[in-house]
Write a structure and sequence with these properties.
By secondary structure, the protein is α+β, with helices and mostly antiparallel strands. The protein is about 55% helix and about 10% strand. It is built from 15 helices and nine strands. The two termini are about 25 Å apart.
Length: about 290
């Protein structure tokens, strides 16, 4: 299975090499995927892999879309109204797809934010966030990626969104436990780059301490480790503890869970646990997201 995974991934990068060559003049990063596999487990192909995810500055979206179209990719959204809706309410544009015979299609997701669309706090300046990207070799393809510290920030925010989005909770049977595994091994295998002081300082800078606590707390349920326990203790805040018992991505849609954390982590049907809570407004939002994604 790992050999097949690596073969498919290597082909994705081969078919995308022209894109990365054209992106050299821009500041961007490949996030998650193979760069995360390298940082977390020391080799490519160690995670279940699918799309290639790019993080770019919003001002470069048109440039990125243009080179994707010129290199045989097509967008999954045709309506101008749908495109505007995604730009105004999401953190990414619609995926771009290219045929990859004889394998599966290749999909590239283009993100312009590391927060979710519903976030109502101060957003992170993506130009600044990408200011210290590093070059990584993935199957002979030179790409730009995030440092371990910025990778942790992006990953924590991504998984917080995944564990709290009404749309995702309504469409997935269970939490993505492998994501919590990635967080644990990213931390343990990069302790110099992810020292407590460094992680705390950047979390304070970006005002994300409660989200970091939330994710580390869940990781701590699955992995008993003295180092991890120390991080969890140092990141604990009253707001972080409050978030543990809630779901929803901002205060206006946030509501309390009716079951405890262990029940949620073991659940095989998260939607069953919360669907009775959904208002008509929630249902309309979920349906809109279903159409867009």
């Amino acid at each position: 299975m790992q050999e097949i995974n690596m073969l498919l991934s290597s082909q994705r990068y081969k078919y995308s090499s022209a894109i990365f060559e054209l992106l050299k003049s821009k500041t961007y990063a490949v996030i998650k995927g193979e760069p995360l596999s390298l940082l977390t487990y020391g080799a490519c192909g160690e995670r279940h892999l699918g799309d290639i995810d790019l993080l770019v500055d919003r001002k470069d979206l048109k440039f990125v879309e243009t080179i994707l179209l010129k290199n045989g990719f097509r967008t999954t959204l045709q309506s101008r109204a749908d495109k505007i809706m995604m730009l105004s309410s999401a953190h990414q544009i619609a995926p771009y797809i290219k045929e990859m015979p004889p394998y599966k299609n290749i999909m590239i997701d283009v993100n312009f934010d590391i927060f979710w669309g519903e976030y109502d706090g101060k957003r992170i300046d993506i130009t600044e966030f990408l200011s210290d990207v590093i070059e990584v070799d993935i199957y002979g393809c030179k790409i730009k990626s995030l440092t371990p510290l910025k990778t942790m920030v992006q990953l924590i925010l991504h998984h917080y969104k995944d564990m709290n989005s009404l749309y995702i909770l309504s469409t997935r049977e269970n939490y993505n436990i492998s994501a919590l595994k990635d967080i644990y091994y990213l931390l343990i295998n990069n302790l110099n780059d992810l020292s407590l002081n460094k992680l705390f300082d950047i979390s304070e800078k970006y005002a994300i301490i409660p989200f970091v606590y939330y994710i580390l707390y869940h990781v701590g349920i699955l992995y008993k480790d003295d180092i991890l326990d120390y991080y969890i203790k140092e990141f604990e805040t009253s707001e972080g503890k409050y978030l543990l018992n809630c779901y929803g991505l901002n205060e206006s849609e946030r509501r309390e869970w009716k079951v405890d954390i262990l029940t949620r982590l073991k659940s095989k049907n998260l939607n069953n646990l919360i669907r009775s809570d959904f208002t008509e407004k929630d249902k309309k939002k979920i349906e809109l997201n279903r159409r867009e994604f």
